[in-house]
Structures are given as C-alpha cells and as structure tokens.
Amino acid sequence: MNDVILFLTTPSTPEREDISLTNLKQLKKLGKDIIVLSTIPNINPEYYDLASLVVFDFFKGNIFKQLYKKANEYPIPFLKGNGAFFYWFDDPKFIIYTDTHFLSVYRNTKNLIKLAYSLNYRNFLYIEDDHYFSDYGLVKLKEYFTRMNVEQLNGIYFTNTWNYLSEVMHPHFWFGNSAYFDESILNRMPENYDELESQYPISCDYETFLYINIYKRVHNKQNIIIENIRGRSFDDIFGNETKINQIFSHYDIADDSRINILPYKDPNIYKLILNFRKFNMTENFTYVKVLRNDELICGVKLKLKEIISVIDLNLNLDDAPNIKVMFDSNVVKEFKGLTKDNVIKNGKWEDV
Amino acid sequence: MNCVLHFLKNESEVSILENNYDILSPSIKNQFVMSFVPNVLPNRQFEQLFYKKPNNLDSHQEEYSRYFFLYQINHFLQSKNYKRFIFVGSNTKLKSQSDLSDLLNQINAFDIDFVKFKDANGLYEDLFLARIAVLDNNLDYANCTYENYCKRQRYRNYDVYLGSPFVKVKNLEEYI
C-alpha cells in the first residue's frame, strides 16, 4: 500500500456536513484510500462509502483560557509562552483569551497518523474537513503526492510568519511519511492533559506547536519541503477556486473573540467589546441592548459593521448574574452566571 | 498497558457490549470497538471506535474481513504501546464476577501469550486474551492476503492464528 488521505471531520450541522462531504468527494478523485476520523456520532452514511475506515473519537480535549492567560503573563525573565493563543488588538489596545479544542486536535491528528503507519501506508495527506479543492487544486495535491514518492520525502509543510516574529505551520493540511512521523514526531504529540503539560508552553497554540515539534526541534530535517505562504496565499498554489479553512470560530457572531466583557476599573466598571472587523454584517446600524438578569442596563444604537465598538458597563457581578447581549430583538450572546473571576480570565484592557 | 477490544457484531447486541464494558471498566480503563455495523455506537466512554462498511461476497470473505480488520487494529494498538488485550464479541455476555483482568495480567513475555476458551463445540472464537506483539506476529506472517489467509491454519505444522506454544485454555462456561 502506498498513499492515504487522513480526513478529520466534525459534521455537526447540515452546513458543516455539506462542506465536509463536498471536500471529501473532491479528494476521492485523487484515487487514494481514505481514513475518516469523526468527532461526532451518527454521521452521514456517505462517509462509509467514501472511506475504507471510519473512526470515532469523542474525547473533549479543551484547553481553557486561564491557561493562555497564565502562559502569556509571565514577566521577563520567566518562561513566557511563545505558544500562547490569544487575540491581540492595537487600536484600541486589548487582549482576549478564548478556550480552544487544541488537545482534541493533537490527539486526533496523532491517532490518524498512527493508523496510517499501522495500516502500512507509506505516505499520507492529513487534512481537515472545511476546505474545498477545485480540480486544479487536486492536480497540485497530486503533484505533491508524486513528489513525496519520487523524491522519497519525509514531509511537505505549509508555513507562515505571524507579525514578522512567530514561525508557524498551517494546520489545515500537510503531507508526511508515516514511518518518519511515527519514529520522530508522534511521541511529542499530547493526547491527554498530563502529556499536554509535559509539552507546556509550546503545546498552547496549535500552529506554533506544529512548527516547533514537527520541524524546528526535529533532528532529521532531511527531505522536508517547506512551502512558505508568507506574502502570498494558498490561492497562488491551489488556484482561486480552492477554498481553505471555511469554518473558523472567529467567523461566529457569538465567539468570545467577537463579543466579550473585559475588566476595566474597580469595583464595577467593565468594557463590553463588540468586534466586527472582517465580519460579514448586512446592517449598518444596530440597536445594542445589554440585560442583567433580563433587566435592561444599557441600550444604544451603534455602527458595528467593520469596526470595533467598546461600551463601558457598570455591572455588579457579586451575585453571578446572567448577562445577555442583544442586537435589535435577537439575543446574540449570553454570559451565564458571570463572575468577576471569570471576567478576569477573558483578557486585558490596556489604556493608552 | 491493558485494553479491551470489543467486536460489535449485530445492532441488537449493543446492550451486551455495554454490559461487558461496565464489567471490565473498573479494572481496564482503555476500551475500543471494532465493527462492520456502521453508525451503531454504544453509549460508553471508548478511546476510539473503528467502523468499516461490510463488503463480503460470501462467508469466507466475511471471515477474512474480520481477520484483516483485527490485524489492522491490533497493529494500531501495538503502535500505541499496548501490551495485551481482551477480545470480546458482542454475542458474548460476560459474567459480572469473572476474573478476566486477573487472567489478562498472567500474559507477559515470561509466561503465556494467549488465553483461549473452549466449550462443548471446541474453541470459542469470540473471546480470547492475547499478547499484542505475538498476535501481531501471528496475523502478519502472511501479509494478510486472502490467499494466505485461506491456508492460515497450519504453517510448518504450527497453528498460526492465535497460535503459540505458550497458551492457556480455559472453560468458557466459567466466564459467560
């Protein structure tokens, strides 16, 4: 046996299932065996037709925002987590921490590659479910597979550099040699909380972790191809009809990176952040309401489209109230049982 | 490390599989499922569950599919550093007081490689305890091709499937 496609999927809604199956059907055209790992049960029977093996893993490996906050707030000269994951804004200046499911991703990635190795596949394409490769994109994927085999490569990675500083590896897909990964890399991938801590702090952020543990810290860097995307896009390689990373929690209106509450001044002043930069919003102006235990405490008409808006809130959190944020008549976000301690973990507002 | 590999044979047997999980889980935490029945998922905390669509032309093919599937999952478990497992089919309801995990711990490099079970009909194929590295060697000897599988039972006068000179055979009635 030779090549296999390792497909990680979470088809939790009809829309997600549609994106996932469309992606998988395109990939099937490559004529390779496929192993699917789903993180949810009761998947569409089509997955069984398209894949030679379907695996389920329902482990919820969340990494909580307090870990990111702690990792990012070590002062010099302590070990500052270069892998801490957070959203950073410059104007106005603030940081937001969010929970991630990166531990599940580490575990599922590791087990998929272990399967490729165990089932005697030589080379693999590891890929997440939320992409679409056009026929032109498939031709390019096929060329990479050919290079893996003809040039006897150990891996082809797609990398980038964030803010001119941090080297990362794009986690959307990559090629690898199964035996090379089993021998040199998989033992570093955490699949439970103990192992996650043993890799701290670089295990905090998925993209940084991949770059460091799959490439930077590996002794044998021979026969590795790095495709650096910096200054260009995936379109340049796979064509502009190919769509990469269609599902991203940051695109969700209720994501913590979009609507959040940060501590500001004691005892009870907080900042309500409404971040809708690069967000598909139809209405120019929105009537924003904030309710504390269903009692209106703030109502204001705002332009949200393409900007970051900040509202000062005078909030008593002593009795852990429910806070609802409404846009016009719709509840878009609810903070249940919000406490001061919880808000502190959300991030940090920095007055200029 | 010890683990359990459940083989879900029929949709109607999910409750038996869950019962077996509950009996074994106090002593063996990591449990897996393999099955040819798509989307029938037992309601327990398994490590992973492996499913294949059945593609059997006849009963020989069906038997071979199971053999090949076991070969693949056993190889996976070995790569994850598991040492030994209990294989139990969903048609096999374990007794709650069975001491299978004690029996499993007798399997090691210095002692036996397999525990098999027999009843009046002979060896029972839906319950056995195996040392994973030895089972891997058993299953892998013929690269698992269908042709080699068909003549797998004896190779240079040795049983090669679940075969070892170091085997314990127990009475099935004591366990199910």
Architecture blueprint of SSEs:
The complex is a heterodimer of chains A (352) and B (176).
Chain A: E1 3-9, H1 14-28, E2 33-38, H2 46-50, E3 53-56, H3 65-72, E4 87-90, E5 93-96, H4 102-118, E6 123-128, H5 135-150, E7 155-162, E8 166-169, E9 173-177, H6 178-184, H7 193-198, H8 206-216, E10 224-228, H9 234-238, E11 259-265, E12 269-275, E13 285-292, E14 295-303, E15 308-314, E16 323-327, E17 330-335, H10 340-346, E18 347-349
Parallel strand pairs in A: 1-2, 1-6, 2-3, 7-10
Antiparallel strand pairs in A: 4-5, 5-18, 6-9, 7-8, 7-9, 11-12, 12-15, 13-14, 13-16, 16-17
Helix pairs in contact in A: 4-6
Chain B: E1 2-8, H1 14-24, E2 31-35, E3 49-51, H2 59-79, E4 84-89, H3 100-105, E5 114-119, E6 122-131, H4 132-140, H5 146-150, E7 154-155, E8 158-159, E9 167-171
Parallel strand pairs in B: 1-2, 1-4, 2-3, 5-9
Antiparallel strand pairs in B: 4-6, 5-6, 7-8
What does this molecule look like?
The complex is a heterodimer of chains A (352) and B (176). Helix content of chain A is 28%, strand content 30%. Chain A has 10 helices and 18 strands. Chain A has helices at 14-28, 46-50, 65-72, 102-118, 135-150, 178-184, 193-198, 206-216, 234-238, 340-346; strands at 3-9, 33-38, 53-56, 87-90, 93-96, 123-128, 155-162, 166-169, 173-177, 224-228, 259-265, 269-275, 285-292, 295-303, 308-314, 323-327, 330-335, 347-349. The longest helix of chain A is centred in the first third of the chain and has 17 residues, at 102-118. Chain A starts with a strand and ends with a strand. In chain A, 39% of the residues are buried. Chain B has a 7-stranded mixed sheet, with helices on both faces. The two termini of chain B are 24 Å apart. In chain B, a hairpin with a 2-residue loop joins strand 5 and strand 6. At the A-B interface, strand 3 and helix 4 of A face strand 3 and helix 2 of B. Strand 3 of chain A pairs antiparallel with strand 3 of chain B, so a sheet runs across the interface.
